[in-house]
Design a protein that fits this description.
The complex is a heterodimer of chains A (about 375) and B (about 650). By secondary structure, chain A is mainly alpha-helical. Chain A is built from 15 helices and no strands. Helix content of chain B is about 50%, strand content about 10%. The longest helix of chain B is centred in the last third of the chain and has 39 residues, at about 530-570. Classes of the chains: A mainly alpha (about 375), B alpha+beta (about 650).
């Protein structure tokens, strides 16, 4: 008997939180500091608000397509070809993102703790976890997310709270950094920070309470927006602007600077566990979505046989960048600048097309009925 | 290259490369052949010596021979079937007259066939009216001439002034001798002579109604029924002229008395434990749950051992589909012998390779009663003092029965300590290894210096010394269980010397490592479930390997994979990590932390009980004041 996948509201919420926030561990605070200087946290706030508004629009249009995922919507809007093209677009953006993030996680681990281990071994270890997670399915993954994310979030908040003694308000002056116009201009490509929001549009058919997808998305954006903003703010309050652009792992640096008495001076140890756990969850979900999108686009019966080939592909792509700097450049220069077009604009376009087509079809049917 | 040589060459090449595996087999099939028991493949047909040569020639001549041979076998089977079909057709034709109308089979021929069928099928063999025939059959069936403990006693009874030869049969040692003498044989011999109003009564009725003063008498029509009863400590009574036999329940074998639990010790709470007798165990449960809805459903498991197993559940609480699933699994088991609930557990569990038990085995009746009250099912196996509880979650396995008898603050503290024990067992040695090998910066400087100076003289890498110590400890633990009692203290002295002093004195390991191994061992003893303790003990070595290989990253990978497998697992359809993964909506949170007893209002909702409410919203009636009392009653009804 085929088992039906069921995902609870909290589980879906935790999945989204981890997908959004794992980049906090990597380089997010530093990147926004580079772009908006001392006003980085304001830019993050603006980006989160913008994504919130865009999601409300998406959710409103989505009401016309209950119980359908975005690929079904693409099919009803543009037809079979539309489903395949949209599926491939989403899949390719994940296939670009996941190996880069994998490489970044591996490189960071290598720099921090496994200095003599070859990078291929570290990537292979991540691949084992990623493959097993994706193999056991989305239901297991979201359940682990629901168990782990509250713990990881608590550890993260713990690190932020313990940084309070080192806060210095003067470090975020001038408050508006390079100026409001520059902030707004730089905020647009940074919408890509929420590019994983598209994952919610794939799991709608699996939700226990399908009507709740909008509130799941809204809460996830709110909570992760708060995480983004507060962690950037904390980072900027502890390290002044020019210095803040130097550290390659901002939150790790923040954790390293924490000291509680003489004995507890190495809090960053907790951070490595949080870091690796978040990476495993993120990468497993990513691999699952890659294979799911491929399966769904081409109408395959099962996705498990796809997992090993995709893992090998991800491993191989992750080995392409020469070093951490190249991987970061591949992410920042290309992915973060343009990913929002695929993950935010394309779904909007698909939804609008499908809505228009549905309305036209309905009108035609009612006209035909009137004529008869 | 000639065809014959080429194909043989290819065959040998394949054999060398794949160790006999066929290239055509997929990877998963090959893995299955290594790790799983494959279904028996049909053996090659027996070939006479004369024709074996031809067979060999055939094999070497053509690689496709096997498939051809397979086809031949199939053809022959088919031809055999055809032959049977032909004979059947011929018989039908015989019976069909020239005009095509079927002729009736003569009654003699039909009776003959029936008799033949009965003789072949011992289960359907009916008891004969002739006592001698029955005696011969029973003697033959039980090999009475060589079976020393099988006893037959022949005597006569008088019914309606007529002598009837009778014999009883039983296994000596399995029955209660006094009961047989006083309540079976004596009444049959003496009461039969007493004047009783036997008007309009058959011999069978007289024997059944007046001559066997026993509370459990079964009237058996087939030999199989009586044999089953006798095999399980019953007594068979055969009377001349009757086509039935009587089976009396006179079980009286030696057994252990009710004793204190040996593996689930406690200070507070009842101190009775199950023993090896099925009915005594069910009685212990009935003694606690005085409820007519407590159902004890018997199922026999084991084709030869016919071990009586009892499913116990409270009918108006447990989910019917859960009972159905347990019944389905129990009845589907096909094995020769079932000796213990540990064996049954392995037949019933959802996943064989999961590194955690998916059922709870307990020897405490109070614990079983408590789980039955939550809507779970218990399985009692005759011959085992451990009762199976299903379904369970991981959190049930780290609960102790004493948690329920202790006050809330103490029980909560104990739960914390136990969880700490689990973490120590699994992770402490691997964390030590990871920190000393890869992440020195994690330790405060003073502690780091202390560890470094202690390890200065040790020649082995940490990973080797920790494996030496862990294996030594496991050896001592295993030996401690197997060793005869009087030698026990010697072992502990040797163990303490090896582990404690000599290893450090010889600079084989550092003193800190001894502390790590000792704390790990103590942690493992704090796990209340024996089976879960084994699981964590084994997994500890995997974590050690991962930590030795990749430090904290390896440990995180291990935790991630471990959690993945546990979250994916199910126990009789119930997620193993419920109520956390998936989150269930019940108000009862007695999973990790203990809730105050008065707050445990609902049964765990992941077992889907028929009645979710376990106790009233205000369970302490004395706390009701004024109008609140009425309000709470209304609330109770609403719930």
């Amino acid at each position: 008997m085929k088992q039906k996948i069921k995902i609870g509201n909290f589980e879906a919420f935790c999945l989204l939180i981890n997908l959004f926030c794992s980049k906090l561990i990597l380089d997010f605070p530093r990147n926004v500091a580079e772009e908006a200087g001392t006003a980085a946290w304001i830019m993050v706030l603006l980006v989160s608000a913008a994504v919130f508004v865009i999601f409300i629009i998406i959710a409103r249009i989505y009401k016309n397509f209950p119980q359908k995922d975005i690929l079904d919507v693409a099919e009803s809007g543009i037809g079979e070809a539309g489903k395949i093209i949209a599926g491939m677009l989403f899949m390719l953006q994940f296939l670009y993102l996941i190996p880069i993030v994998l490489r970044e996680f591996a490189e960071d681990i290598k720099v921090v703790s496994l200095t003599t281990t070859p990078i291929s071994i570290i990537i292979a270890l991540f691949c084992i976890g990623m493959l097993t997670g994706a193999f056991l399915g989305i239901e297991t993954l979201v359940r682990i997310n629901a168990m782990a994310v509250p713990v990881l979030a608590a550890a993260f908040i713990f690190i932020l709270l313990l940084s309070i003694p080192r806060f210095d308000l003067s470090k975020i002056a001038p408050w508006l950094g390079p100026g409001p116009l520059v902030i707004i201009k730089k905020a647009v490509p940074n919408i890509s920070a929420y590019s994983e929001l598209v994952a919610l549009l794939f799991i709608i058919p699996f939700l226990n309470e399908k009507a709740n997808y909008a509130s799941i998305g809204k809460y996830a954006i709110l909570v992760s927006g708060s995480f983004f903003t507060f962690s950037t703010l904390t980072y900027m309050l502890v390290y002044q602007y020019p210095m803040a652009t130097e550290f390659f792992l901002p939150i790790y640096q923040l954790a390293r600077s924490i000291r509680i008495g003489r004995f507890f001076s190495r809090i960053e140890a907790i951070f490595i566990l949080v870091w690796a756990s978040s990476a495993f969850l993120y990468l497993s979900s990513g691999l699952y979505f890659i294979s799911y999108l491929f399966k769904k686009s081409f109408g395959l019966k099962t996705q498990k046989p796809l997992l090993i080939p995709f893992t090998i592909l991800i491993f191989s792509i992750a080995m392409i960048p020469e070093n951490l700097y190249t991987a970061l450049q591949l992410e920042l220069s290309y992915y973060r600048n343009y990913a929002w077009i695929i993950t935010i604009i394309v779904p909007l376009f698909l939804l609008i097309t499908a809505s228009v087509r549905t309305k036209v079809e309905r009108r035609n049917i009612s006209n035909e009925a009137d004529n008869k | 290259m000639p065809k014959l040589y080429r194909e043989n060459y290819g065959k040998t090449y394949k054999m060398i490369l794949f160790g006999g595996f066929s290239l055509k087999k997929s990877m998963s099939q090959r893995l299955k052949t290594i790790f799983l028991f494959s279904p028996k493949e049909p053996k090659d047909r027996f070939v006479l010596d004369g024709s074996s040569k031809d067979q060999d020639n055939k094999d070497s001549a053509d690689t496709n021979d096997q498939s051809k041979q397979g086809e031949e076998v199939k053809d022959e089977t088919r031809s055999g079937e055809d032959e049977k079909r032909f004979n059947r057709k011929a018989n039908n034709e015989k019976r069909t007259g020239a005009d095509g109308i079927k002729q009736p089979i003569p009654i003699n021929e039909m009776n003959e066939k029936k008799r033949e069928r009965k003789v072949n099928d011992t289960k359907a063999l009916f008891i004969d009216t002739s006592l001698n025939a029955n005696l011969d059959y029973i003697k033959a069936r039980y090999n009475a001439d060589i079976n020393g403990d099988f006893k037959i006693r022949e005597f006569k009874i008088i019914v309606m002034n007529k002598d009837y030869p009778v014999f009883v049969c039983f296994f000596d040692g399995m029955i209660d001798r006094l009961l047989v003498n006083m309540s079976i044989i004596q009444p049959l011999m003496t009461l039969s002579a007493m004047p009783v109003n036997m008007k309009d009564q058959t011999v069978r009725d007289v024997v059944y109604n007046h001559l066997i003063p026993q509370n459990q008498v079964k009237v058996c029509k087939t030999y199989q029924e009586i044999v089953d009863e006798v095999n399980f400590g019953g007594l068979g009574i055969f009377v001349d002229g009757l086509d039935v036999a009587f089976a009396c329940d006179v079980k009286g074998w030696e057994h252990r008395n009710i004793e204190k639990p040996t593996s689930e010790l406690n200070i507070r709470g009842p101190k009775e434990s199950f023993n090896e007798t099925n009915r005594m165990n069910t009685a212990l449960l009935r003694k606690i749950i005085k409820d007519e809805n407590l159902i004890v459903e018997d199922v026999l498991v084991g084709e030869r051992s016919k071990t009586p197993c009892s499913m116990v559940y409270i009918k108006n609480i447990v989910n019917d589909s859960l009972v159905g699933e347990v019944r389905r699994r129990l009845k589907s088991i096909k094995t020769g012998y079932l000796r213990d609930s540990g064996e049954l557990e392995q037949f019933l569990e959802d996943s064989t390779y999961l590194p955690a038990p998916q059922m709870l085995l307990t020897e405490r009746p109070d614990r079983v009663a408590s789980y039955l009250g939550e809507g779970r099912v218990g399985i009692i196996v005759h011959g085992s003092p451990f009762v199976i509880i299903a379904p369970v979650t991981l959190f049930n396995l780290i609960h102790s029965p004493e948690d329920y008898y202790l006050r809330y603050p103490y029980a909560t503290l104990l739960r914390f300590i136990r969880i700490l024990g689990v973490i120590f067992t699994l992770l402490l040695p691997s964390l030590y290894l990871a920190i000393t090998n890869y992440h020195h910066e994690m330790l405060p400087t003073d502690l780091l210096l202390a560890i470094a100076s202690a390890r200065e003289k040790v020649p082995f890498p940490t990973v080797i010394s920790i494996f030496i110590m862990e294996i030594a400890f496991e050896l001592i633990r295993e030996a401690g269980i197997r060793i005869p009692g009087p030698i026990g203290p010697t072992l502990s002295i040797v163990g303490a010397l090896i582990l404690g002093q000599a290893a450090v004195a010889a600079n084989l390991v550092s003193p800190i490592l001894i502390i790590i191994v000792a704390v790990t061992a103590i942690g493992s003893f704090s796990i209340p479930d024996f089976s879960l303790g084994y699981s964590f003990r084994a997994l500890r070595f995997i974590y050690l390997l991962l930590a030795g290989f990749a430090g904290l990253l390896g440990i995180t990978l291990g935790i991630f994979l471990h959690l993945l497998v546990l979250v994916h697992a199910k126990s009789f359809g119930v997620p193993f990590m419920a109520p956390f993964a998936p989150r269930t909506s019940g108000t009862r949170t007695n999973a990790i932390l203990k809730t105050p007893l008065w707050k445990e209002e609902d049964r765990p909702d992941f077992v889907n009980p028929k009645d979710i409410k376990q106790q009233a919203h205000i369970s302490r009636g004395w706390i009701k004041r004024g109008e609140g009392a009425n309000a709470n009653e209304t609330e109770d009804k609403d719930r």
